[in-house]
Every structure is written in structure tokens, then in C-alpha cells.
Write a structure and sequence with these properties.
Length: 110
């Protein structure tokens, strides 16, 4: 009985924690250009890579809002691309737990 109760509590905790994570779909930009790269493009990719190479931090732009991120390594390779970022959002900051490529979205949806 105790084993079943512990399994139930553990399961509820796991699903409860997943419910706190939020998914944001947006374009990976840099802190210098910010929302200028609200649409994924080859030009945006080149610009973001150049700025990031110069020391600018990577950010995620979604619905005109610029989100700072806690883990730059997870955004590497996604510069200028549309991504789905899963993590805890506090104000304009995201504690990233996962990043994956997203399908193309129009600028109107961003």
C-alpha cells in the first residue's frame, strides 16, 4: 500500500512540474537586434551569428516580445531560426529546458 501511494505522489509531482513549463514559439535573435529579427530568414541568421560572434547574447523573439535566456548553449545552431522553447518563464526571462526547431510561421502570427 505504501509503495502504491509513493508511486502516485511521484507521478503527480512529475505531471505537476510539467504543467509549469511553458512553450514559446519564436525566432532566435540577439540582444542587439532584438525584435528586428521577428521573422526567420537567411539574412536574420547571418546577422544574429555575426552579433553573437561579437559577444551579443542570444534571445527569443515571440509576439514582439524579447525573452532573455539562461542557457546560451541550447540556442547555438538555431540563430535566426524559428524554434519552440520549453521552460519556466518569469517576466521577460526563460529558464530553458528544451529547444527544438519549429515549422515556419508567418510574421502575422509572431
Amino acid at each position: 500500500m505504501t509503495k502504491k501511494l509513493l508511486m502516485l505522489v511521484a507521478t503527480l509531482l512529475v505531471f505537476g512540474c510539467l504543467a509549469w513549463a511553458k512553450v514559446i514559439t519564436g525566432v532566435v535573435s540577439d540582444e542587439h537586434c532584438g525584435a528586428k529579427h521577428a521573422k526567420a530568414s537567411d539574412e536574420a541568421t547571418a546577422c544574429v551569428k555575426k552579433c553573437a560572434g561579437g559577444g551579443a547574447k542570444l534571445v527569443v523573439v515571440s509576439h514582439g516580445k524579447v525573452y532573455m535566456t539562461d542557457d546560451q548553449d541550447k540556442l547555438q545552431g538555431h540563430e535566426g531560426h524559428m524554434v519552440k522553447v520549453t521552460g519556466d518563464v518569469t517576466g521577460d526571462k526563460i529558464a530553458i529546458s528544451n529547444v527544438e526547431m519549429a515549422g515556419a510561421m508567418s510574421k502575422e502570427k509572431m
